[in-house]
Amino acid sequence: MTAPGTPRSHQPDASQVPRYSGIRTFARCPHSRELGGIDVAVIGVPFDTTTSFRPGARFGPEAIRSASVLLRDYHPPLDVAVFSTLSVVDWGDTPIIPTNTQRSLDLIAESVRDVVRAGAISLCLGGDHSIALAELRGLAAINGPLPLVLLDSHADTWDSYYGERYFHGTPFRRAVEEGLLLPERSVMAGMRGPLYSAQDLADARALGFEVITGEELREMTPESFAFKVQGRVGDLPAYLSFDIDFVDPAFAPATGTPEPGGPTSAEALALLRSLSGMQFMGFDVVEVSPPYDNPGQTTALLASAVAYECLALAAVAARR
Predict the structure, then answer these.
(1) Which of 18, 72, 112, 140 has the largest CB neighbor count within 10 A?
(2) DSSP code at position 124
(3) φ, ψ of residue 38 in degrees (nearest 5)
(4) Is residue 117 part of a domain?
(5) 162: domain CATH number?
(6) What would the pLDDT profile of 143-188 be if each residue is shown by its tens digit?
(7) What pLDDT is recorded for position 19?
(8) Cβ atoms 86, 40 nearer than 8 A
(9) Strand 74-75 with 80-81, pairing
(10) Which residues contact 173 (CB under 8 A, 6 or more apart)?
């Protein structure tokens, strides 16, 4: 990573360049595929072919980028100047073949692998959650298997759905089968809502994952959550995946499979901030479906804030 305080790329000064002007990149960072000296590459993944209920997450990257123009440099709770510490670029979107899931996953994996090989952290904007499998293929090709920190209302460890093994409800089972994850060092948190059977979460635990249900998470403080996650992951670099349906649909209505009864926006952001000090090799924010958002674009705004929290975690790690 570049030395803190000397980023190669940076945001334009909003006092000189209005936020509503220019090409829509994430947080108005430069668009570039030249990754020498770059710390984080934001990657759009406009893919939702494996969505089971509400479609539209293919438009998620565009909406998140538009909402992100409000993001500023300094992060008060973590006391870090994100874009002055990190060199961040918007890499653009991965290639996608809408009618071919397997080929699309291959193309996404190749894109992530190229970013990580160049020494940058990947921050992917989805897209449905099947893209996590492709991300992990790209990450593991360079770093080997990683611990997972998942914030989601679903464990996404089914074996198949409608007979399909590659689906937005199966990525983490496939990732374990392919040796991309270290489930014994991983944590899934926020699972709630009706299930097909009691076996759904039992299967996730049988794969080796630590599962914190939504009910259990409500009883935890951010500090106790972080203690559990850090105790599980240890000092290994990890991968953080954030499904926007982790948050209650009162705050994030625009998602494919909403589950009432989840955390507020403030609670979700506090849980992310509690992980300060951990090292992550990759992040994603998935399942934002803009056609279901409200006029104020509540979900897209929250998703951009979640992505910013991921960058802040990376900035704290880089500063240390």
Answers:
(1) 112
(2) E
(3) -95, 135
(4) yes
(5) 3.40.800.10
(6) 999 999 999 999 999 998 888 899 999 999 999 999 999 999 999 9
(7) 60
(8) yes
(9) antiparallel
(10) 156, 157, 158, 159, 203, 207
Token couple for 259:
């589950």
Beta-carbon-side half-sphere exposure of residue 249 (alpha carbons within 13 Å): 15
**Model pTM?**
0.93
Host domain of residue 81? 26-319
Instruction: Give the pairing of strands 121-126 and 210-213.
Output: unpaired
φ, ψ dihedrals at 151, nearest 5°: -115, 115
Give the whole-angstrom CA distance, residue 40 versus residue 43: 9
Cα 256 from Cα 187, distance rounded (Å): 23
Residues 69-118: tens digit of each pLDDT? 999 999 999 999 999 999 999 999 999 998 899 999 999 999 999 999 99
CB 275 within 8 A of CB 233: no
What is the rounded CA–CA span in Å between residue 311 and residue 125? 13
- 165 within some domain: yes
Please report the sign of the dihedral spanned by the C-alpha atoms of residue 190, residue 195, residue 200, residue 202: positive
CB distance 256 to 291 below 8 Å: no
Tokens found for residue 5 = 């305080």
Strands 238-243 and 280-286 come out as parallel
* Cα–Cα distance for residue pair 66/27, rounded to 1 Å: 8
235 located within any domain: yes
Total domains, the chain: 1
Work out the burial of residue 108: count CB atoms within 10 Å of its CB; fewer than 13 is exposed, 13-18 middle, 19 or more buried.
buried
Q: Specify the pairing of strand 148-151 against strand 187-191.
A: parallel
Q: 90: which residues sit within 8 A by CB, 6+ positions away?
A: 25, 26, 29, 30, 31, 32, 41, 42, 44, 65
